[in-house]
């Protein structure tokens, strides 16, 4: 029985990663476009990118990753709280790494993305979309 549950979590984690990759691709596209084309500060550009990615992620995670039966008004509000905490974590880490430590913004974003990914998976799996 534990093996089935473990495989269920691995499958969801894989789907969450696929959804996250699509949201991250949108996030990075917005980030790079705003920095390279419009000269926007990387910390603000990553915030805008993260918001775009979050909207895509909600839709895909609700329907595909977690196949949630929770009403949208509950799931969306919980998801947005988790996404908001992820956004704060993302923005804070980017500010620390780019502005505080002088890291190149794309290197900082890769590390930040990995940390935010695991935090938001756990919060969404066990709270936002849980049946």
Q: Tally the helices.
A: 4
Ends distance: 19 Å
Q: Estimate the helix proportion, in percent.
A: over 70%
β-strand amount? under 5%
Q: How many beta-strand runs?
A: 0
Taking all residues together, what is the mean pLDDT? 91
- Give a quick account of the main beta sheet: strands, pairing sense, barrel closure: none
Overall tally of domains: 1
| Rg on CA atoms, Å | 15 Å
C-alpha geometry: elongated
Question: What sequence of helices (H) and strands (E) makes up the elements?
Answer: HHHH
Oligomeric state of shown chains: single chain
Structural class: mainly alpha
Uncertain segments are none
Please outline what is shown here.
The chain is mostly helical.
Description:
This protein has 131 residues and is mostly helical. It has one domain. The protein is built from four helices and no strands. The chain has helices at 2-38, 42-65, 72-100, 105-128. It is elongated. The chain starts with a helix and ends with a helix.
List keywords for this structure.
131 residues; mainly alpha; elongated
Write the layout of secondary structure elements.
Elements: H1 2-38, H2 42-65, H3 72-100, H4 105-128
Helix pairs in contact: 1-2, 2-3, 3-4
């Amino acid at each position: 029985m534990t093996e089935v549950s473990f495989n269920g979590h691995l499958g969801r984690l894989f789907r969450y990663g696929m959804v996250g990759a699509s949201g991250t691709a949108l996030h990075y596209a917005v980030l790079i476009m705003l920095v390279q084309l419009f000269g926007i500060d990387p910390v603000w550009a990553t915030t805008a990118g993260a918001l775009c990615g979050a909207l895509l992620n909600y839709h895909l995670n609700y329907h595909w990753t977690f196949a949630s039966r929770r009403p949208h008004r509950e799931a969306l509000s919980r998801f947005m709280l988790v996404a908001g905490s992820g956004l704060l974590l993302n923005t804070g880490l980017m500010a620390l790494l780019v502005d505080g430590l002088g890291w190149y913004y794309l290197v900082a974003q890769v590390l930040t993305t990995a940390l935010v990914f695991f935090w938001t998976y756990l919060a969404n799996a066990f709270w936002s979309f849980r049946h």
